[in-house]
Specification:
Helix content: over 70%
Shape: elongated
Number of helices: 4
Structural class: mainly alpha
């Protein structure tokens, strides 16, 4: 019997270590994703709007950030599943009986919305901007179209950043169960 208790203790310690790692990587991914979007929305895009010569730099920074954002989304998804499975309040996929489960549901909706916006930015808008950039090298008549596409890119990134803020606020809404 003592051997079995020792094995269970080791498994519990391993489980807690994995959960701690999950929290760590979840927080790092959140900082990378939201921090990168904050940098784009609050500094890079306004700078490129005021000074046209920085538009190429803004596009290069956004393109460089994209793989980090994708990796962060993946890490958030995996670590979020691990954390939800370990939560005491988790009662099932469609259980909305506690404030915690309601907050998690809102958080998941915000996450899905942000993934949709990122998908549209990467697979809808980025190729359009690339095409317009190539056309601009040949003639200068696509400037208006480029400005419209860049404005749409800024708006979608701002929406995504705002949804990320809602997502973080839903983290604050998580409640620990009150024990009698």
């Amino acid at each position: 019997m003592p051997v079995r208790a020792a094995i269970l203790t080791e498994l519990l310690n391993l489980n807690l270590s994995l959960l701690a790692l999950s929290y760590f990587f979840h927080l790092v991914a959140t900082v990378v994703w939201l921090g990168g979007m904050a940098l784009l929305v609050l500094i890079i895009y306004p700078l490129s709007q005021r000074h046209g010569q920085f538009a190429g730099l803004a596009a290069a920074i956004e393109a460089r950030f994209r793989p980090f954002a994708n990796l962060s989304l993946f890490v958030l998804l995996v670590t979020g599943v691990v954390q939800t499975g370990a939560a005491e309040n988790y009662g099932g996929l469609l259980d909305f009986s506690t404030p915690w489960s309601q907050a998690i549901f809102l958080k998941h909706l915000a996450f899905i919305g942000m993934v949709v916006v990122v998908g549209w930015l990467q697979f809808g808008l980025a190729p359009t901007l690339d095409r317009l950039q190539l056309l601009a090298l040949k003639n200068a008549e696509v400037e208006n179209e480029q400005a419209t596409a860049r404005a749409q890119q800024r708006r979608l990134t701002q929406i995504n950043f705002g949804a990320g803020g809602c997502w973080c606020c839903s983290l604050l809404r998580r409640q620990r169960p009150v024990r009698p």
